[in-house]
Amino acid sequence: MREAITLVGDGIENPWNALTMLHAAAMFDAPCVFRDRKGLVASWEEVQPARGSLPLVSYTELADGYSPVVALDNLDGAADVYGYKLPRGPRAALLVGNERRGLAQDVIGLATESVQIPLVSRNLSSLNVAAASAVGLYYLSRGGGGSMQLRAQPERRRPEVLMLGAADHWELGSSIRSAAAFGWERLWVDDRAGVWFGPDRATRSEGRAAARRGRNPSRVIPATLKRLGGFAEVCVITTRHTGVPLHRANLAGGQRQLIVVPDEGAVDPHAEDWRRLGPDVRLVHLELPCEEFTYHYRLIATIALAEIARQVGRRTRGVTRPPRTAPLYDSALQVLEEKQGEMVYPEDLDTY
């Protein structure tokens, strides 16, 4: 890991996002500061009075005190965060912007570099700002890692994903939003905590608000370890230093591969009977510089999904999409999908 990068939140509005960004930075032993353009300090003092003052930075301090300055935004000419090599400098900063409008033009002008997290389409809503911050810090602190894979038929390499045991509806909803943004049109949810399929009306509405994406719906399908099985390979992703590091694992094995992301704040991964899902079970771990940190499911899940999406890759230019002929195994999953599950149309929900 290279020297820590300062995470800078520009115009963040939601104090809960600000708190999660502080925790995301702490995962990488990085400072986190905020440029308040949208009344963040006032809302922070109202919601988080016991946590002390937010660390702030002014435009002048940002201009004079940091180099290189990297904008993380969907800007024209931005490099992919995958494979990006951060230039050397005395004090690097990673800029992330307002939840709805992104970075302000004046700080974009300060940026010496710009990177983006490749998503399946620009028509979809972006990642949650704290989740995007975690992805940016993960790849920049690793020196970029591998580049985005280019494939003739990348969707054939996309594995199934199971989100297991999430205990918080906001965290699960935001993780579902990340999966949609990276191209998953369906995913499986083991909702043993009852925060998605069976909560009260207010919790249900808040969770789905956190999961919103652009115009396209997502199918979220209930599953349990007893009900979902028959995969050729199962990869369980955790933060514990057990198994293969995330960047070295093969996470693009297609629909016969299941990637499980358990909520380690509520579930002990070593106490689960993963072999119910398939005979070949592999543990995969995120390499994080800090062993002790405040756990957020959305941060871990989004980093994992970003790496899977990198390995699945994008289509080589000039190659047209072939007609989709579902393999037999996908047809079997489709039967389960049609019997249970729900379509999420987040355009009908409140913003988050």
Structure characteristics:
eight-stranded mixed sheet, 16 strands, Alpha/beta knot, alpha/beta, 28% helix, 9 helices, globular, 2 domains, disordered C terminus, 352 residues, single chain
Provide an overview of this structure.
Strands 12-14-11-13-8-9-10-16 form an eight-stranded mixed sheet, covered by helices on one side. Residues 346-352 have low confidence and may be disordered. It has nine helices and 16 strands. The protein is 28% helix and 18% strand. The radius of gyration is 20 Å and the shape is globular. The longest helix is centred in the last third of the chain and has 16 residues, at 297-312. α1 (15-27) links the parallel β1 (6-10) and β2 (32-35). The protein folds into two domains: 6-141, Alpha/beta knot, CATH 3.40.1280; 151-315 and 323-348, SPOUT methyltransferase, trefoil knot domain (Alpha/beta knot, 3-Layer(aba) Sandwich). The protein has helices at residues 15-27, 40-47, 59-65, 105-110, 129-141, 169-181, 201-210, 297-312, 328-339; strands at 6-10, 32-35, 69-72, 79-80, 93-96, 113-116, 150-151, 160-164, 186-190, 218-222, 233-238, 244-245, 257-262, 280-285, 314-315, 342-344. It is an alpha/beta fold and 352 residues long.
